[in-house]
From TrEMBL:
This is TonB-linked outer membrane protein, SusC/RagA family. Residues 135-235 form the TonB-dependent receptor plug domain. Belongs to the TonB-dependent receptor family. Its main location: membrane. Pfam families: CarbopepD_reg_2, Plug. It comes from Bacteroides cellulosilyticus DSM 14838. GO terms for molecular function: siderophore uptake transmembrane transporter activity. Gene3D superfamilies: Carboxypeptidase-like, regulatory domain, TonB-dependent receptor, plug domain.
């Protein structure tokens, strides 16, 4: 019998049974195995990341999927990392295909990354929870990422996009501080702006900090239908930056300092040329002399300071600094991601004495995974922007700009050059704006304070099935304060050393306005995404609602003295207070995306929208869209042919069609409105204030509709080093507003018939892009370009009528279906008259007075109808639209990188639009100066003092003070119209990134310095010194600035 009581028998030696011994040994083996596994969890590995040519890839991200450790490669492409022995590494770098490599117990790993020219725009964010790979996109969508935007040093985010998006047109018609380009998609009108899922206006896009933008996607076709109302002109989808999972803390500080100069601006004539033009006028007209030869010669010889021409251009336009700085931090753990940013920009004005514009931006994006299924996010962004200038009516920059040619070159801004005493420098005192400053004119200040809070929550109900909600609150407060001082003009008496008042300026004004914009947006979605074998499905249904209120208060007063900051009852002259037209919109959305083997792709979407604008029964509309795509290169027959597989690596055919809604008409036009406190009557001897009806109500206004067809093709050649895309589009716009003319109502009603949805227009066009990316030795380079053509045509018109065939041809061109819209008509020129003899023998009566007003150098017009008389019956179509976006826009881009040196250049251009010379650039105003360009290129007397001395025929007619726009030589004609073409260098930048082996020693992972320039030159087919983007026909717009910046970017 075996005794198992060890403690009762001290001398007993216990022997473990054999079976138990086996168990113990097995347990020890298992324990040792655990110890071995534990040791495996902490192995140290090293490795090298190279490209397909064996060159080191610097700064590549290396992340272990299981241990969550990560690092980046050094200047040799090397890395060291502590990982588990069975871990998997993810290696990624911009411009290369991401690779996953199992560790498999190896201590040294070499990874070769392959370039991917499609990677930069591989993911396209189209909104409502969908981010698609470029390969699966079936709509016409252009996109740009943060890396490209970082090289565009623009004051506004819109400016950073110029030239980078095919099918998106920009035109910056003025360069005042804080100004942004106008943006249109395919010349269709103002697009809808979506920022982080919330509808905003273009002002919010303009004033984003471009450093905070992660990506921009532009929906150009029917794919915009899911955004409903206001999306018919296309949609710009902005996504701001966010932190990433398991991202180490990254701190970035970047900024620049630069100088601005006017790029192109017509210069006023010098004093001697201004006086010569006056003398020539008096010589030809035989009027008494106001300038003697002796006086004129003093100006020519500049005998003293009083006879030295004053350059108003140099005085008014000055160089001005601008500066920008941004600091941001980003990072993340397994559960929390964050991105925080603070930026400030200061852009001083280029008009003397103008402080200009400044803006401070804040962005905070935080995402938290409460559980593996439940995620929340909070995004807060805000800005404070301020415009600060001298006191001018309505902050009118044009007043001092006009001073450049209103003010005479024989005058100076101050009496005796003493800045305390403004002088009259123009024929009319109120035009003497060249001296504007805060001391004399007062001050104008306009400030916006804006904050937006977005809250999101997402819950995964089942695998692939998610519920998501977004709530956004946006508040903008605007305060304007304008104090316009009364001022006096002086003359200096040298003998008595006294400044005498000769005239008093405008009356004092104090303007105050306060405006508040408040918007609430809510969005609830249910989405499902899954893959079944070769079938991939993504679907979403949802609801969106938006409500906004926009109250405003305005007060105008006439204070008794300058400097009084308040408006009291005694000085109040105008006061308005309004609730600001509350607006409410809502819609139901649905979308289905399906693809088979990433080869056959289809997308269906629709939106059922309702608007507060219309009466019951007409408020709601359904707007569907559909698109298909076929990736031919994924077919087996394509892959089986080596030539096709190796040379054409991407071929996708796309098509889309949809109906999009447009909000037309004024709100609540079906209800009779009243203007209160308008009019009145005397009743029982007393004045009773009354109210008036605003107009007739109508039930016949509802949604306009745009039917949009797009057919496109995407191509990739030579392993996608060469990429091309082409899209053709049609837009049929119906339900445009017009009034019936054939329904008569009594005149006693006092109103015309209201508008209804009666007319239509249509547009046709295309956009295309080509990009080549490659590497030669150590040089990486990219060359690309894009072009957009879009033109509008007249569609159906309500019962078009014409009084004659001529009326049908000329004046009613807008009523002929199939005609181009925006066509310029004018007389057709036929050179210039070379002599008095030619004028006398001219068989056509051009001036309606037997040609007695004509002079050598004047424009000669063609008698198109042969009746011997020049009039509007001789007008013909001679040009494209003026003042708007050109019909053809194009851009070219170049990028180079070589051993830490990088170079970027963006060129933009346009053609097929008309510029018209007017005012300052067309004739010599009797009460102002003339442009130096006009004088230098005009016809002149050989001797300005002798009418019989003959003429030197110039490019333009005689510049005479007695001629104006009604003179026949200045009639509208192609003599004064130019069909423009230009190419402008929009951005250029050269930078250098310091070697990481230098910077890593002081805790800096990347340090880059650069020099950049904007608007440095423009090639154009007109020799007038104007910026080709401006629309002001007299050239007197605030010009776009030439800018040179010196900047840096440092990552810690």
């Amino acid at each position: 019998m075996k005794n198992h009581n060890l403690f009762l028998t001290p001398n007993y030696r216990y022997r473990l049974p054999e079976s138990n011994l086996k168990k113990l040994i097995l347990s020890l083996i298992v324990l040792l195995s655990f110890v071995h596994v534990a040791a495996q969890n902490n192995i140290n590995i090293s490795g090298t990341v190279v490209d397909d040519q064996g060159e080191a890839v610097i700064g590549a991200s290396v992340v272990a999927q299981k241990s969550k450790n990560g690092t980046i490669t050094d200047v040799e492409g090397n890395f060291k990392l502590s990982v588990r022995s069975n871990d998997v590494l993810t290696i990624s770098f911009i411009g290369y295909i991401t690779q996953t490599v199992p560790v498999s117990g190896k201590n040294n790993i070499v990874v070769t990354l392959k370039e991917n020219s499609m990677l930069l725009d591989e993911v396209v964010v189209t909104g409502f929870g969908l981010a698609q790979k470029r390969a699966s996109v079936t709509g016409a969508i252009s996109s740009v990422g943060a890396q490209e935007l970082a090289h565009a040093k623009s004051v506004t985010a819109t400016g950073a996009l110029v030239g980078k998006l095919p099918g998106v047109n920009f035109r910056q018609d003025n360069g005042r501080p804080g100004a942004a380009p106008n943006i249109q998609i395919r010349n269709m009108g103002t697009p809808l702006i979506i920022i982080d899922g919330v509808q905003k206006d273009s002002g919010n896009l303009n004033n984003l900090d471009f450093n905070d933008i992660e990506s921009v996607s532009v929906l150009k076709d029917a794919s915009a239908a899911i955004y409903g109302m206001q999306a018919a002109n296309g949609v710009v989808v902005i996504t701001t930056k966010r932190g990433q999972k398991n991202q180490k803390l990254k701190v970035n500080v970047n900024g620049y300092y630069g100088w601005q100069l006017p790029s192109n601006y017509p210069k006023p004539a010098s004093a001697e040329d201004y006086l010569a033009a006056i003398i020539q006028t008096e010589t030809i007209n035989g009027t008494p002399r106001t300038v003697t030869k002796e006086e004129y010669q003093k100006w020519v010889d500049k005998v003293d300071e009083d006879h030295t021409s004053f350059d108003w251009y140099k005085y008014i336009w000055v160089s001005a600094p601008q500066s920008y700085v941004n600091a941001n931090v980003s990072g993340g753990t397994e559960k929390v991601r964050y991105y925080l940013s603070l930026g400030h920009i200061d852009q001083e004005g280029n008009i003397r004495g103008f402080k200009g514009f400044n803006r401070t931006n804040m962005q905070s994006n935080i995402d938290i995974d409460i559980t593996n299924r439940f995620k929340v996010g909070v995004a807060i962004n805000g800005r404070i922007e301020t415009t600060d200038n001298p006191g001018l009516p309505g902050d009118d920059y044009n007043l001092p700009i006009y001073g450049a040619y209103n003010n005479l070159p024989t005058k100076k801004p101050y009496a005796n050059n003493n800045p305390k005493y403004p002088a009259i420098s123009a024929p009319w005192a109120q035009d003497s704006f060249g001296w504007m400053n805060y001391e004399h004119a007062g001050s104008y200040k306009d400030q916006w304070k804006v904050i937006q809070i977005n809250g999101t929550a997402e819950y995964e109900i089942l695998k692939g099935l998610k519920a998501r909600g977004l709530f956004s609150y946006w508040l903008a407060n605007r305060r304007q304060s304008n104090r316009e001082y009364s001022y006096k003009f002086y003359e200096y008496d040298k003998e008595s050393d006294v400044y005498n008042v000769v005239e008093t300026g405008t009356a004092r004004y104090t303007e105050r306005s306060m405006e508040m914009k408040e918007e609430l947006t809510s969005n609830i979605q249910l989405s499902y995404e899954n893959t079944f074998a070769l079938h991939h499905v993504n679907a979403v249904v949802g609801f969106e609602a938006k409500k906004g209120t926009y109250p405003r208060m305005y007060a105008l007063g006439n204070p008794p003295a300058n400097g009084i900051p308040y408006i009291d009852k005694t000085s109040l002259s105008n006061f308005t207070d309004g609730i600001g037209n509350p607006q409410t919109r809502m819609g139901y959305i649905g979308r289905l995306n399906y693809d088979y083997a990433n080869k056959y792709i289809i997308e269906l979407s629709g939106r059922y929208d309702g608007s507060y604008r219309y009466k019951r029964g007409k408020r709601w509309g359904f707007f569907p869209s559909a698109s298909i795509g076929y990736r031919v290169t994924e077919e087996k027959f394509w892959q089986d042919v080596d030539f096709l597989k190796d040379n054409i690596t991407n071929l996708k055919i796309r098509a889309s069609y949809g109906v999009l809604g447009e909000e037309l008409g004024t709100a609540l036009s079906h209800i009779v409105g009243y203007n209160y406190n308008s009019g009145g009557a005397v009743i029982d001897g007393g004045l009773v204030t009354g109210s008036t009806v605003t107009g007739l109500a109508t039930d016949n206004i509802t949604w306009g509709k745009s039917k949009i067809l797009n057919i496109g093709i995407d191509l990739g050649f030579l392993d996608n080093r060469l990429n091309a895309s082409f899209d053709y589009f049609n837009r049929d716009q119906t339900g445009l507003l017009a009034s019936r003319y054939d329904v008569q109502i009594p005149e006693e009603v006092g109103f015309s018939l209201p508008q209804e949805n009666l007319n239509s227009n249509y547009a046709r066009g295309f956009d295309a892009s080509v990009n080549w990316r490659d590497r030669i030795g150590d040089v990486n380079y990219t060359v690309g370009g894009n072009v957009t053509y879009s033109r509008w045509y007249v569609g159906d018109r309500y019962k078009p009528r014409f009084s004659s065939e001529w009326q049908k041809f000329r004046y009613q061109a807008g009523n002929i279906k199939g005609r181009y819209t925006d066509v310029e008509f004018s007389l057709v020129s036929d050179g210039q008259f070379q002599s008095w003899e030619e004028i006398a023998n001219h068989p056509v009566d051009q001036d309606h007075q037997g040609n007695i007003t004509l002079k050598p150098g004047d424009a000669k017009y063609k008698d198109m109808n042969g009746d011997g008389l020049i009039n509007d019956a001789d007008w013909r179509p001679i040009g494209y639209r003026k003042g708007g976006t050109p019909w053809v826009n194009f851009a070219f881009n170049l990028a180079l990188d070589w051993k830490g040196i990088d170079f970027r250049a963006d060129f933009v251009g346009a053609t097929a639009y008309t510029y018209v010379q007017q005012g300052f650039l067309r004739y010599f105003d009797p009460n102002k100066n003339l442009s130096q360009y006009l004088w230098d290129n005009s016809t002149r007397l050989v001797d300005i003092w002798d009418a019989d001395s003959g003429f030197n025929i110039g490019k333009y007619p005689l510049a005479l003070r007695t001629r104006n726009n009604s003179d026949c030589t200045h009639w509208p004609s192609d003599f004064w119209y130019t069909n423009m073409t230009y190419l402008k260098m929009r951005n250029v930048e050269i930078g250098y990134t310091l070697p990481q082996k230098w910077t890593s020693k002081i805790g800096i992972s990347r340090c880059r310095f650069y020099v950049s320039g904007q608007n440095l030159f423009a090639l154009k087919n007109i020799d007038i010194d104007i910026d080709p983007e401006i629309t002001a026909e007299n050239g007197m717009a605030y010009p776009n600035m030439k800018v040179v910046n010196f900047g840096f970017s440092v990552d810690f």
